[in-house]
Amino acid sequence: MSRVAKKTATASEASAKAAEKPTQKRVRRTADEARRLILDAAEKRLARQGPEGLRLQDIARDVGISHPAILHHFESREGLVRALIARTNKQLRDSLLGALGDGDTSRDAADHIGHVFEALSDKGTARLLSWLLLTGRATEESDAHNIMGEIVDVLQDRREEYAEKKGTAAPDKEDTLFIAMLTANAAFGEAIVGRQLAEAAGLDQHGIKRFRKWFAKLINDHLEAKR
Amino acid sequence: MSRVAKKTATASEASAKAAEKPTQKRVRRTADEARRLILDAAEKRLARQGPEGLRLQDIARDVGISHPAILHHFESREGLVRALIARTNKQLRDSLLGALGDGDTSRDAADHIGHVFEALSDKGTARLLSWLLLTGRATEESDAHNIMGEIVDVLQDRREEYAEKKGTAAPDKEDTLFIAMLTANAAFGEAIVGRQLAEAAGLDQHGIKRFRKWFAKLINDHLEAKR
DNA sequence: CGATATATTGACAATAATGTCAATATAGCC
DNA sequence: GGCTATATTGACATTATTGTCAATATATCG
Questions:
Q1: Where do the domains of chain A lie, and which CATH numbers do they carry?
Q2: In terms of Cα–Cα distance, which of A33, A81, A31 is closest to A56?
Q3: pTM above 0.70, yes or no
């Protein structure tokens, strides 16, 4: 009841002289641009504040628009979430496969692993995907499946090429899969609990880098031993 | 407006004869028992449905009480969350340190690692803690810090004992820390994305076990190489 | 320039969740 | 058996958030 009275203030504000139509200005973006800005803002909120930071009004404020505009572009909050998931999956896929499939044979396991960690920690991608998995939204949009499969295939090809060149035995495919799984698990884990654990252990940013290098070497040693 | 009319039904139900006071029965638990039941229900909801499954009314229904009873025992929803975090931290600490500090030297790295994975996947402990970290509730209740520190200390002691007995060089402490971090990260990661990745790779329950064994062997090999 | 499509908005509706409170039932104690 | 403390509850208040809608401004196209 008290809320109704408040809005009369805007009316008085508009009637500075006797203007019936204040003719307020608006910024009008293309639909794609608007969608991009909204997704960017949502991504940032999610990375910073977690799942509960995804409120339409907050995102709208960040972008500088009103919240119905978001509904207009994404139909519903769920639509926004789905779009965000789809975009993040796509970005992750491009980032990972792009680095792997570069054809640059000079890159070794350490490079690949470093890239995986960066791709997942960058912009809180792992946080977003984790939340998606925690809330059980993953069964429907099982894009992640394909990504994993593709990556393992690429890796296996690389190892087979390498083995053939060296004339050694063909690598075990399950071994390749397990390496990929461990790397993915560790990268996700680090994105979520890594900072806490590192802090607890008194590690600074540089210590985390040392950890990643240590891990890369562990994998490299394993690869060497298999040859 | 329409909601008011609905409740008259209960009145008619109560007036089977002319009973002014239906004298409804109640189950009355001790405060501790009630708190325990509520926390159990909240834990299950969280493990199954993620963060969004933590609604007072749902939990109350699971326990078979009304939602104000939860408020009575935990002050607020936040209070419930904090209590749940505290209990989970305690359980995890006991589980991990208990297994590690058992003084049983017959246990090797594989046993320890298996235990860590089980402790975190059991009851969705990792899911709960992940959510806690994702929502940024960890900085205050930094119990996790202590746990990590304690575990690394215990592990380091073990390695030093072992090295002394074998007469080999003392192990690097950072190496021990990194092993613990990797194990923790991997276990967390597996709890969150592991199932998805495993499914994507066509692994069944047994495949996941093989992965864990593979990981344990990887660590064991590393330990051997260090000696 | 005029018409059309649509991006944008303010106000409101609907819903859902937490939290408050007085009333009530029950266990434990004298 | 009566008393006291408190666990429990139904009804209600409060608040926050998503979603709807008609109105409006603006880019684009003829």
A1: 28-74 (1.10.10), 88-227 (1.10.357)
A2: A81
A3: yes
